[in-house]
Amino acid sequence: MHELVVEDAMVSFDGEILACSIGIDEGKITRIAKVLKGEEKYDARGRLVMPGVIDSHVHFRDMRQEEKEDWLSGSKAALYGGVTTVVDMPNSDPPTFDAEAFKVKQTVAANRSMVDFSLNAGVGDNLPQLPQLWKLGALAFGEIFMAKSTGGFSIDEPALKEALKAITLMGATASIHAEDEALHEELKKSLKHDPSSSIHSKLRPRESEINAVEAAIRLARETRVAMHITHISTSRAVELISREGITCDVTPHHLLLTMDHWDRLGSHAKMNPPIRHDSDRNALWKAVNDGSIEVLASDHAPHTLDEKNLPVREAPSGVPGVETMLPLMLKAVADKRLPLQRLIDMTSANPARIFGIEGKGSFAAGNDADMVFVDMAKVRQITPAGLHSKAGWTPYRGFEAIFPEAVMLRGDIVLDGKDFYAKRGTGKFIPGKGYKRLSDVLKMARAGKRT
Ligand SMILES: NC(=O)N[C@@H](CC(=O)O)C(=O)O
Ligand SMILES: [Zn+2]
Ligand SMILES: [Zn+2]
């Protein structure tokens, strides 16, 4: 007898969709079988049930940027989009570059988040801080900015190499934002008076990403670091990366938006790396389908409507996306643009494995009971008013999408149709592999070992 049984669930097992029951005890999955007995039951009503989505690249802002997003609004948007775990990036204010800032963010997120969360640590001129950030439970290092993006951080190659050596020694993973700062500086001068609406894509051309990916690969070979390259946007980057033991992710915006969107969206289409031509977009879809891109991540990067209504050269880069990622991609599954199992792998098992997110990523016994319930027939159009980020705007207005019917986090139904049950502060911190509990640190100190 299980504490809770999800009945009449349709679950994808290696692409084959089978009706089953899911047994849950103490918030964890204990068994999947045709029929199970439970003290309590949740009727999935023949809906598709997939693992809660892990979004391994979000910017939930907060602290000194609460006007853009905070952990309450960000995590609420996440849940409405079927995302039950997020990994937050370090270019917040204050930036997550030292122990103090890490602890502050951890406290704020723990008090506000309604989804489980991991925090990445930043890498810049803070080399001595990295081991401590690792011990505090940073999931990975990055995104590491090879070129300036929102927040204005960047690191040159020699410094990056030193950092990657340190990251290798710790056994951690480095996640790279690959663009070429020197090329951007040159183009800023030569294109100073270019009035075209697509100027941002010209200022950060595909060569920028390709140069940086080449440099990153060189450094990965030299330092043997576990490297992941985030939000890739070009066919060439995919080619280069897939020959190496390096992983990468792609965003929905690089799969769904192209240069054609500049005229309609203006600054609302501005992000780094920028949108590209159809040829790159098509290559990204192919790579998503053949498995050479392992992860789908939103790069949820909210800015206020006022900021994004500025002219394209002045507006900040970044688009919100945590709530629309799964719905847009489920519509792509319905349209046969990618198999359901690929989408599931890219949003759960793969990010969990690559970043070492414990207890998440599949319906294996012992994992957290994080689930998304989907009715593939329920297609609706995205409207800004229907979304929950503080941003209040979306580049996907009018796009068709399939939003989750219900969401479960660690055995609790947190969203069910129109009912929303999640409470602030219920999200759990998921530390990375370097995390040392205080008791372990003391034990090791007593045994005379270095921590
Ligand atoms: N992607 C963006 O254009 N912006 C991100 C930063 C980043 O991911 O580079 C942001 O924090 O706003
Ligand atoms: Zn980035
Ligand atoms: Zn980002």
From TrEMBL:
GO terms for cellular component: cytoplasm. Substrate binds at H59, F60, R61, N91, H303. Zn(2+) 2 binds at E143, H177, H231. Residues 48-381 form the Amidohydrolase-related domain. Keywords: Hydrolase, Metal-binding, Pyrimidine biosynthesis, Zinc. It catalyses: (S)-dihydroorotate + H2O = N-carbamoyl-L-aspartate + H(+). Pathway: Pyrimidine metabolism; UMP biosynthesis via de novo pathway; (S)-dihydroorotate from bicarbonate: step 3/3. This is Dihydroorotase. Its EC number is 3.5.2.3. The active site is at D299.
